[in-house]
Amino acid sequence: MEHHQIGIKIISLALLATLSLPAYAYLDPGTGSIIFQAIIASVVMGFATIRLWWDKFISLFNSRKSDKESKKQSSESEEIVITDKENKS
User: Which residue spans traverse the membrane (predicted)?
Assistant: First the structure.
C-alpha cells in the first residue's frame, strides 16, 4: 500500500513540475556576458590552483635533491675558502 502512495506522490510532483506559469522575469543583455565571465574565471582559477598544487608536489622531490646539492656546494665552498687562505699566507 505504501508503494502505491509513493507512486502517486511522485506522479503528482512530476505533473506539478510540468506546469508552466508565466515567470515575469527579465534578463538584460549583460547577463550573458556575466555568465560567460564567471565560466572563464572559474576555468582560469582551476588551472591556477592545479599549477600551485603541481609546483608544491614537484618541490617535495626537488627539496631532497637541493638539500644534497647544497651540502655538496657548501663543502666545495669551504674547500675554496681554505685553499684561498693557504695561497694568501
Answer: 35-54
Q: List average pLDDT for each run of 10 residues in the chain, which is 89 residues long.
A: 80 86 80 93 96 89 67 60 55
Residue 82, domain extent: 57-89
Query: How far is CA 79 from each of CA 13, 22, 43, 72, 86, rounded to the nearest angstrom?
Result: 83, 85, 52, 11, 11
Q: Is residue 80 part of a domain?
A: yes
Is 1 in a helix, a strand, or coil?
coil
**Length of the chain, in residues:** 89
Residue 74 lies in a domain: yes
> How far is Cα 30 from Cα 34, in angstroms, rounded to an integer?
6
Q: In this structure, what DSSP letter does residue 20 have?
A: -
Q: Is residue 79, in this structure, part of any structural domain at all?
A: yes
Counted domains in the chain: 1
